[in-house]
Each structure stands twice: as C-alpha cells, then as structure tokens.
C-alpha cells in the first residue's frame, strides 16, 4: 500500500487554518492563560513516566482541532499503518521503513532475533574479558568506526547512558580528517583495543579510509591473522568484510529495510551494547517499542508525537518559523541534538512532494540547541528578545541519577523559569527602560521525564522519530531517502579521480 499523496495546502483544514491564523496571530499567550483557568491541565499529555506540557504555545483548542483534522485529511492513520506493516513507503528506493521491527519483541523477526542473540554473546565475551586480543590481553577500549547514522546514533546513546556504562572505554571516529584519526589513536593500546567497523555497504569513503588507515597501523606490530581478534564489522557486504580480514562469525548483518539514521536499534548499536551491557541495550529497545505502541494505537488528541509534530507544522507553515530549539536539561543528552539534526534535517529536507511536483510551501525545520543552563549563557538572549520566533522543546528529568538534590533543584528551577519567562516576559508590568522589556509570547513545550534510564531514553528517541514521520506525511514528502547526500559523495569521488 503506497503512502497517500495529498497536497496539504489543498485540504479544507489548511484553508481553515489560514483563516484561523489571521484571527490568532496577534493573540497573546498571557491573555489565554488569564482567560483559561484549566489551560495547564487541558494542554498536556501524561503517559507513563512522561508529562508533556504544551500549554505555552500560541494555540487554542480550535487550533488543535483544525490540526488534528489536517492529519486526518492527509490520511495519517493509513500512513502509520503502512509503516508498521513494513510496506515499501520509501518509494524512491523501493524499500520498507521498518526500524520499529528491530524493537518489537512480541513479533520479533527471526533474523533480528538471531542478530540480537549474536550481539548478546559478543558483548558478554568482551565485557567479561573472555574475548582476548592477539597478545592474550582482555579488551579495555572499543573504537566505533562509522559516519552518519553509523556514528551519531550509537555515540549519542552511549553518552546518554554513561551512568550505566561498564569499565570499557568507547570511542567514536567518523570524520575522514586524518589528524583527528591519529590524535584519537595516539593514547590507545592497540593490544587491548577492539575496532567495530560500521558500514552497510562496506564502501563508505570516510569509514573505509579510516578503517584502512587503522588496519595499517595495527599491522605494524601484529599479523594478518590477528585482525580477527581486533576487528569486527556491521555490514551486508560479506565479501568485502572477508577481504578486510574479518571472519564471518564476527560480522553482524543489516537489512535494507533499516535506514542509516534509524539504525542504532540494530547491530549498528553494538558499541552501545558493549558499553552498557546487553540487558540495558534491550531495555533501550523496549522503551522505543513502548513509544511505538503509543504512537500507533493512541488517538491523535492524546498522541505525543502526533501533537508535537502538528504544533511544529503550525509554527513552520503559518508563523513562518524556520527553526526550532531542542533544549535538554541534562548533560547526558549532549549528543542528542547532533543526532536529531541528522534524523530530522536529512529526512525532511525535501522540495519535491510524493507526486513528484516541486513544493511551494515550507517543509523541514532546522533543529538546533544545547544542554541545560549552558544555553542561558549562550543563545537564549536571541530567543527572549530577538526578532525571530523560535519555538523550543525543553526536556528535563525530575530525578537525578547521582542524587545531588541541590544541583537538581537548581537545574529544574532554571528549566521551568525559562519556559515561564519566554511565555510571560514583562507583560503587564510597567517597564520604563525599553532595553529591559520582554514581550514574552514565545512558545515552548516542556517535557518532564521521571528519570533517565535506558527505557526512558528509548521512548524519547522514538518520540522524535515518529514526530518527523508525521511531519513528512503532512508535508507530502518522502522522508527516508537522501539524494542530496548521494550527490555530494559522487562529486567528491570525481574530484579524487
């Protein structure tokens, strides 16, 4: 079943949203809060350990109803069903988009079960010290060699779950910059280092260049037969992997229905699995699956990814806000923005619709941000008093992992204060100095999560995966190809010839 191919701007809901926008564009959120005593309760979704407050947005109940109707007119439900059924919704490449199947333990594909079993065995051997290097020493360092989805996803997850990490040091090399490669390798003991080469085709220029250079350095002291003890691969190209010197039993497979930027749930996440252990990695997958079920089965009005996606479309296509900031108040999520940028901007950066026609409305949003109170001493000034309207997602955990209550109270107080200041500003106050005037009326969502665990992290990552999917469906674009990226690769190869 192909995806619907509906131009959103030709729907009745879009026309009604345009009229509604003209009525609402100058309305102040401060006034909405004054007139709606239950606004905080009516504009929020509580689900498991997530509390999502979207009351501080320039929306009313009518706005939401029109947006939900837009989703219905664009046949979002049928699109969701097509994705979860494994239909070839990536039509330009004739591929399924089925990364949700990687974490569906109730209906686990046999090939996924086999790979997970292989990952469990391998990670257990490395963590326990049973896996030895060529000189008989146990592995203490893992280096993941990949780029794009083969780097950003596992690097983000490993950093986010640092509290749960074992004794293994895990390092990521992605950039083809040779200086970076050499500086990264400089402090490492090759005898106790394991390299994971992640490349679906085993032809990615940056990854293979880095892997080949590292192989040469390794062979200065070791032999060809020692490669099998220090190099493993995540790839579908078994011949190329074998030629590199990696044994078949140390090769972890991928499938064409798993897109790179949604692949951390697969063997691409092997480095994360080794860093935190298989049980924690499985919890990460289980959390993502719980969000999958919520997304697939929950009515739009109580559906977190659907609601956040529609609010984002409201700002992007009616207020002409080109960017949105994601602001996690947890340093553990320091790599989350990098991950989101690829997921969102590589997916929805399209100017041709699913009918093959050039688009005359705005599509993909620009995602940016940083962590915690750092943002308050950096770019928040522009969001507060600048001329651009920048919707914000604030993400925080109500419970700290290291139980430093004083720090956590201060962290949360700053998070809550920022959302309040953006909304309220100095509205209603007499401010004689224009330089100290804050208009407020700046939108934000507040996502409170009880605690950062592998399971809650899985839910959070999957939430934004589904959010960008909804946006792509409404905008009538194919979110799962990336022909612009491919063009750059081809031109780089031509320059090297």
From TrEMBL:
Q: Which reaction is catalysed here? A: alpha-D-glucose 6-phosphate = beta-D-fructose 6-phosphate
- GO MF: carbohydrate derivative binding; glucose-6-phosphate isomerase activity; monosaccharide binding
Domain of life of the source: Bacteria
In this protein, the active site sits at: 346, 377, 489
Q: Which InterPro entries match?
A: G6P_Isomerase, Phosphoglucose_isomerase_CS, SIS_dom_sf, SIS_PGI_1, SIS_PGI_2
Q: Which PROSITE patterns match?
A: P_GLUCOSE_ISOMERASE_1, P_GLUCOSE_ISOMERASE_2, P_GLUCOSE_ISOMERASE_3
Q: How far does the signal peptide extend, from start to end residue?
A: none
GO biological process, alphabetically ordered: gluconeogenesis; glucose 6-phosphate metabolic process; glycolytic process
Q: In which pathway does it act?
A: Carbohydrate degradation; glycolysis; D-glyceraldehyde 3-phosphate and glycerone phosphate from D-glucose: step 2/4; Carbohydrate biosynthesis; gluconeogenesis
> One Pfam annotation, family name?
PGI
Give the matching SUPFAM superfamilies: SIS domain (SSF53697)
The listed locations are: Cytoplasm
Under which EC number(s) is this enzyme classified? Answer: 5.3.1.9
> What Gene Ontology cellular-component terms does the record carry?
cytosol
Listed A to Z, the keywords are: Cytoplasm, Gluconeogenesis, Glycolysis, Isomerase
Similarity remark: Belongs to the GPI family.
**Annotated NCBIfam families:** PRK00179.1
Q: What does this protein do?
A: Catalyzes the reversible isomerization of glucose-6-phosphate to fructose-6-phosphate.
Q: What is this protein called?
A: Glucose-6-phosphate isomerase
Q: What is the lineage of its organism?
A: Bacteria, Pseudomonadati, Bacteroidota, Flavobacteriia, Flavobacteriales
Give the gene symbol. pgi
């Amino acid at each position: 079943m192909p995806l619907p191919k509906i131009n959103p701007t030709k729907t009745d809901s879009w026309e009604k949203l345009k009229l509604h926008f003209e009525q609402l564009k100058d309305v102040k959120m401060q006034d909405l809060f004054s007139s709606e005593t239950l606004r905080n309760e009516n504009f929020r979704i509580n689900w498991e350990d997530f509390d999502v407050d979207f009351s501080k947005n320039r929306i009313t109940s009518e706005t939401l109803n029109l947006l939900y109707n837009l989703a219905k007119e664009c046949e979002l439900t049928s699109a969701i069903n097509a994705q979860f059924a494994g239909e070839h919704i990536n039509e330009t490449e004739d591929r399924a988009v089925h990364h949700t199947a990687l974490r569906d333990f109730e209906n686990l594909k046999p090939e996924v079960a086999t790979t997970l079993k292989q990952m469990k065995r391998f990670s257990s051997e490395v963590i326990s010290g049973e896996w030895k290097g060529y000189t008989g020493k146990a592995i203490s360092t893992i280096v993941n060699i990949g780029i794009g989805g083969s780097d950003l996803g596992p690097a983000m997850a490993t950093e986010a779950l640092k509290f749960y990490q074992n004794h293994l040091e895990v390092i990521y090399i992605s950039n083809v910059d040779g200086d970076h490669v050499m500086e990264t390798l400089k402090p490492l003991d090759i005898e106790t280092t394991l390299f994971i080469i992640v490349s679906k085709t085993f032809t990615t220029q940056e990854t293979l260049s880095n892997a080949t250079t590292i192989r040469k350095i390794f062979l200065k002291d070791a032999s060809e037969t020692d490669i099998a003890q220090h190099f493993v691969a995540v790839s579908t190209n078994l011949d190329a992997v074998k030629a590199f010197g990696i044994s078949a039993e140390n090769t972890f497979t991928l499938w064409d229905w798993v897109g790179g930027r949604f692949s951390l749930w697969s063997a691409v996440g092997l480095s994360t699995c080794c860093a935190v252990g298989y049980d924690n990695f499985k919890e990460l997958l289980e959390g993502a699956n719980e969000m999958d079920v919520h997304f697939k089965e929950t009515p739009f009005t109580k559906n977190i990814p659907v609601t956040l996606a529609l609010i984002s479309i409201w700002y992007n296509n009616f207020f002409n806000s080109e960017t949105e900031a994601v602001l996690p108040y947890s340093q553990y999520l320091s790599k989350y923005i990098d991950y989101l940028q690829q997921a969102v901007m590589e997916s929805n950066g399209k100017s041709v619709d699913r009918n093959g026609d050039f688009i005359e409305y705005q599509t993909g949003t620009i995602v940016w941000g940083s962590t915690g109170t750092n943002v308050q001493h950096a770019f928040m000034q522009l969001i507060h008093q600048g001329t651009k309207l920048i919707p914000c997602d604030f993400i925080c955990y109500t419970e700290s992992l290291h139980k430093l209550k004083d720090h956590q109270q201060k962290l949360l107080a700053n998070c809550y204060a920022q959302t309040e200041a953006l909304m309220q500003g100095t509205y209603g106050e007499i401010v004689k100095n224009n330089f100290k005037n804050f208009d407020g009326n700046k939108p934000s969502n507040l996502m409170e999560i009880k605690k950062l665990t592998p399971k809650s992290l899985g839910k959070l990552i999957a939430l934004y995966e589904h959010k960008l999917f909804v946006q792509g469906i409404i905008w009538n674009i194919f979110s799962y190809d990336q022909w612009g990226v491919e063009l750059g690769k081809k031109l780089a190869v031509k320059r090297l010839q």
